[in-house]
Amino acid sequence: MRIRRVSLPGQMTRRLDGQVRNNAGGYAYLIDPKQQLDRFLILGTEGGTYYVGEPRLTLENAVNAIDLLTQEPRDVLSRAAEISWSGRAYKNDPAIFLLAIAASYGGREVRQLVPEYFDRIVRTGSHLLAFVDYASELRGWGRGLRRLVGQWYDRRDLRELAYQLTKYQNRRGWTHRDILRVAHPKPSTPERSALFRYITQRTLDADLLPAEVSEYLEAIGQLRSRQLSEADAARLIREHRLPREVVPTEYLRSAEVWRALLEEMPMTAMLRNLATMTRLGAIGARGNKPDEWARMVIERLTDAERLQKARIHPLGVLAALVTYRSGSGARAKTAWTPIPAVVNALEEAYRITFGNVPPTGKRIVLALDVSGSMGLWNVPGIAGLTCAFAAAAMATLTNAVEQNVRIVLFTEKLREASRRHFRNLESALELYRTVQFGATECAQPMLWAMRHGVEADAFVVYTDNETWAGDVHPVEALWQYRERTGIPAKLVVVGMASTGFSIADPNDAGMLDVVGFDTAAPNAIADFIAAL
């Protein structure tokens, strides 16, 4: 029997100092532990990646976080709070998870720091439910956790606390009723004690509560009686600013009720419910002219100050756009006709949430990884939104502000795409419906530029860094390009998954690794490229 020798692609052999084996079997570089922390805080690990399951990816990032907390606890917690507070991440769960790790595995010094950063990360009732779920699994209920949770309840304004406890009723199997019964917080006033009693026992002591709070809770009780007309339900919602979560399902079939909810609806909730409001006729249009309710939505979507205050993340807008423009949900019966003006407003909101990105005036090659690991795997936590399209969406920002841009899509092969395909999100989405996904060879953009005599000051590569195909390592290709052209070209690697790898050499000052979908990323990229 003859044994056939199989030669591995060059990228599956270690040829350069500092390289390690990535999850796809190729060789790349380990990123700095603090960079990995940023990737985790901004991208999360929900759903894992094409090569690594969620549990392993979460464990790797948890171990990294514990190591960093041991060395620099204040810096780590400050970083988590900054990313959470500024809205740089689509989801707050990674920051909450890190806080729970600090409260559970950290030494005394670390645990004493947790209260200092708690309220900057745990801002809503939903955040508290998530923290309790993580912490109770990691450490159990000790005196410190009871005190931490009790103080959160005690610091809130009573009316705001009533809103938080009724809007965010349960998450991950926990309710505020459960937490109050386990934590036994000591209410600082009779009014707070009465509110806790309402949550735990459904007993309303209206005489002990401020009128604003008792009337709010009584209005919820009237809705739950299910004996009101749609008009009366809408009136109560308007009068007491009731959230959607306290409205019984039968009222949520009414356009009138949804219009009442829309008047005070938080921005995140509005994004998630655009399709429902359109399907029920709560917002609409005559021809191309949106009605007054649709105009209200459009005005809010294009209000930069409102978007910033609500911490609306570009991924949230992108997910809403992809869903809304599709005109149908997971079930066939949930269909709607998208309002063109609302679709355009979502496009504008997406641009606004990244802030003003200055042009660099440099020659840039935008290189988008459309390999199987990018094209067949979703952005963490967002069903139906692939990493490949998310990368294309980010590329539209650079395409809009730069004059000298070439855009390429690559696997183990490469093709150039017209800039018109990236003039907006709609065009990019249409292009990606035709893409054939393949292997990952991140050296392709530089090799293509050398073959075709393309002069570039910077290559911006959007990838999950799981390169393995081809004979030339990406950094080798860049070094060859620099030597052949005489151009000190830079490489920016935009990481689209929270793994610990990068194709960028950390010892080369002309290479930068940034986190994909960090709201600060486009400006960081522009600053790095402009400093040539």
Describe this protein's structure:
This protein is an alpha/beta fold. Among the domains are: 265-353; 357-530, Rossmann fold, CATH 3.40.50.410. The chain is built from 25 helices and 13 strands. The chain has helices at residues 33-43, 54-71, 73-86, 93-105, 108-121, 125-138, 143-155, 158-167, 176-183, 190-201, 211-224, 230-240, 255-263, 267-272, 274-280, 292-301, 304-309, 314-326, 340-353, 372-375, 387-401, 425-432, 444-452, 474-485, 521-530; strands at 19-21, 27-30, 170-171, 174-175, 285-286, 289-290, 364-369, 405-410, 414-417, 458-463, 490-495, 501-502, 511-515. The strands form four sheets. Strands 9-8-7-10-11-13 form a six-stranded mixed beta sheet. A three-stranded antiparallel beta sheet has the order 1-2-12, with no helix packed on it. Strands 3-4 form a two-stranded antiparallel ribbon. A hairpin with a 2-residue loop joins strand 5 and strand 6 (289-290). Helix 1 (33-43) packs across helix 2 (54-71). Mean pLDDT is 87; it is low at 1-12 and 47-53.
Give the tags.
alpha/beta, 3-stranded antiparallel β-sheet, 25 helices, 52% helix, 532 residues, Rossmann fold
What is the CATH domain class of the domain at 357-530?
Alpha Beta
Shape: globular
**What about the largest sheet?**
6 strands, mixed
**Head-to-tail CA distance between termini:** 59 Å
Binned, the helix content reads 40-55%
CATH architecture of the domain at 357-530: 3-Layer(aba) Sandwich
CATH names the topology of the domain at 357-530 as: Rossmann fold
Structural class: alpha/beta
Using DSSP, what is the number of strands? 13
Work out the helix count: 25
- The average pLDDT score comes to 87
Strand order of the largest sheet: 9-8-7-10-11-13
State which percent range the strand residues make up. 5-15%
CATH homologous superfamily descriptor of the domain at 357-530: von Willebrand factor, type A domain
The Cα radius of gyration reads 26 Å
**Low-pLDDT ranges:** 1-12, 47-53
